[in-house]
Amino acid sequence: MRKYHQNKESIYPYHEWKIVEDEFRPEYNHRNETIFALGNGYIGLRGTFEEGYSGDPKTTTPGTYINGVYESEPIYYGEFIPKMPEVGQTMVNLADWKIIRLKVEDEWFDMLKGQLEEYQRVLDLKRGVLQRTLVWTSPKGRKIAVDIQRCISLTDQHRAVIKFSVTPLNFSGQLIFSSEVNGDVQNYHHLREKALKVVKTEVNEDQGLLIQETNNTKIAIAFAIDHCFKSSAKDFSFECENITRENEIAIKYIWYGKEGQSYQLEKYISFYTDLDVSREELETVVKREVSEAKKEGFEILLNKQYQFLKDYWNEVDVKIEGDLALQQGVRFNAFHLLQSCGRDGRTSIGAKGLTGEHYEGHYFWDTEIYVNPFFLYSQPEFVKKLLLYRYNILDKARAKAKLMGHRGALYAWRTINGHEASALFEGSTTQYHINAAIVYAIHKYVEATDDIDFLLNYGAEIIFETSRCWADRGGFIPLKGNKFCINEVCGPDEYKPGVNNNCYTNYMARFNLQLGVKVARMMEEEYPDKFKALAEKIGLKSEEIEYWQRCADEMYLPFNEDLGIHPQDDSFLYKEELDVDSLSEEDIPLVRNWHPLNIWRYQICKQADVVLLMFLLGDLFDLKTKKANYDYYEPRTTHDSSLSACIYSIIASEIGYRKDAYDYFMQTARLDLDDYNNNTHEGIHAACMAGSWMCVINGFAGMRVYDGKLYFNPYLPEGWTGYQFSIRFRGRKLNVYVKKDQVNYTLVEGNDLEFYHCKKKVKLKTGEIKQMKVKG
Ligand code: BGC
């Protein structure tokens, strides 16, 4: 195994439920902005400081983003290529609404000046609150204690609150809180022009309003703030000053602070866009929301947050006994996934969640193949919404297919609004496999939930339109034995674009086509009216369905008898070999350091490709084949994509390579926390985070669902004393607790359940616990 990440020491003490920063070190500031980011699937805020940051501007990216709010700019191509997207889509950095600056007599509070003691910042995964406490002595010797809590509501998606407390410790004197919303912001990456203009500012006593609008996409975003100022001091009074400028609003609280007394500002924030409510209502709605938040108050908001998270952890938590670092890693990941997940059917999950501008906030296949499984077996309703998003952009996928000269629908490789947003077709449009990824996710969702209505009303249309696209995209090639071949594609391995018969793509396309036939036949038989209506709507003919069957039956599925492996594509085995272990740290990732032609010509893979197929359609391959493919591709894979290691870990578990499985899991579980790729500052790696869950559940516990049946094949990784998780499947909740030589299966909720433990059928009644032996 190539040691592609040098395991780094953690800068956070290991803790079961918290991420703690004990010392403020500016060299980690940028990374920590991602680690301590908060969000709720609707809005995200990087972990920047309320008072701002006076350090090196290269080490800070103050950012706040709303899922689905983007700006478009023309894409300039060096040379003309027909049918390429004309405009991009970039998630916009919005008004900075978290600002609370503190003035202590004539000095502004700034952690980079004066002296800092007792500093601690804690992200509490149970409470969903970010808290910073410290004692600061100003350059002129004034000492204050500060306590700041920040919370973005997970229950009320349009609300957030910050509570900022200050206590003068060695003086009495004038203090000022300046609570601001600054609309004079811009993106740090990708956009050439400023995306936003401020169209309205208003301040009135404790309340303020700022409305922005994107220049080209014309999305309006409104922020309302309201405040509550309190103190422990008796006979305390303050003055309030309202300021509106062209691009910002500020409300200043000025008071005389007494030594030893504490003063607190609660800042309530609400945010809405005209994608949520009409433009006319926007102002009223956002103001009403913030007033309600204030009325409800800080304690209730935090209490609701805690209750929400209690339920969440009850569903998703993976308990690891015997390794605190990994425990912390998987919980941190599960927390960030929740924060990233769009839940309105209009948005999805960006590759970086809502924590950074890299990848421009785009949604990829990462959602369907990596993140969906994490939510599917605990919060299936989230997955339904994510799939509804795909349904809602189906027309755009139809348009893309048309543009490309194909029938049916072709989903964009990277997008926010449904249209293709990539200017690089080699890495995007070539990845036709995204169509199959979406269909695979629909199938998995219906299989795990029995939500037949979803299939009939939404899923089927996607399945049919993508089947159409595959049937149109491939052809029967005489020199390939008249088999159905799909040429000029890129599989998951982005280091091999423009290849013929990518094995992964062909298998997944076949899966897609077979499902198309199956669902059409099932609907014809069991829901004839629904089928007729849908067939009419999309002009589906029975000859077409027969043709899908023929394409699937005749699909070219590459296999090399001599090596006993599936060649990744027609040319892969004919390329030069390159020793991946010989690559230096300067070479890696190749995508950033080598000319593409030098990457494409070798037998090297960026990420799991055939090996991913061995996992997704695992019932089609025997153990020997899985092992042979793993042995072949593993030494040829650089894992330059963070989507790779988890898949290798899962297959390594299955074929009994436990050390590899563990090592690859280690590269996954704390990738962001320990900044293995030196790029956490750019934002989280959402797919990899979900991959860490898969390593445990699909890897160590060997969970698979084949043909509607649930299988486990668990073992305990060395050094652990146990691990435990629950999954929801077809209305049941099953708890799985793996210990040294045994596993306990408990049916916590739902009707009797039948599943397989190490190929043996097990039946459980509600509430029943069964103890089984675990392979040594
Ligand atoms: C990977 C893709 C992935 C994208 C976004 C790329 O580096 O190769 O598979 O979809 O990142 O995470």
Topology:
Elements: E1 18-21, H1 29-35, E2 38-39, E3 43-45, E4 64-66, E5 70-71, E6 90-91, E7 100-104, E8 107-108, E9 115-124, E10 129-137, E11 143-152, E12 159-168, E13 173-182, E14 196-204, E15 207-214, E16 220-231, E17 238-244, E18 248-257, E19 263-273, H2 282-296, H3 298-316, E20 319-321, H4 324-340, H5 366-376, H6 380-392, H7 394-403, H8 433-449, H9 452-473, E21 475-477, E22 483-485, H10 503-526, H11 528-538, H12 542-553, H13 590-593, H14 596-600, H15 610-616, H16 623-633, H17 645-654, H18 658-669, H19 686-700, E23 704-706, E24 709-712, E25 722-729, E26 732-738, E27 742-749, E28 753-757, E29 760-764, E30 769-773
Parallel strand pairs: 24-28
Antiparallel strand pairs: 1-9, 2-3, 3-4, 5-6, 7-8, 7-13, 9-10, 10-11, 11-12, 12-19, 13-18, 14-15, 15-16, 16-19, 17-18, 20-25, 21-22, 23-24, 25-26, 26-27, 27-30, 28-29
Domain Glycoside hydrolase family 65 central catalytic: 331-694
InterPro entries: 6-hairpin_glycosidase_sf (IPR008928), 6hp_glycosidase-like_sf (IPR012341), Gal_mutarotase_sf_dom (IPR011013), GH65_N (IPR037018), Glyco_hydro_65_C (IPR005194), Glyco_hydro_65_M (IPR005195), Glyco_hydro_65_N (IPR005196), Malt_Pase/Glycosyl_Hdrlase (IPR017045)
GO molecular function: alpha,alpha-trehalose phosphorylase activity; carbohydrate binding; hydrolase activity, hydrolyzing O-glycosyl compounds
Relevant terms:
binds beta-D-glucopyranose; alpha,alpha-trehalose phosphorylase activity; about 775 residues; 4 domains; alpha+beta; 30 strands; Beta-galactosidase, Chain A, domain 5; Gal_mutarotase_sf_dom; Glycosyltransferase
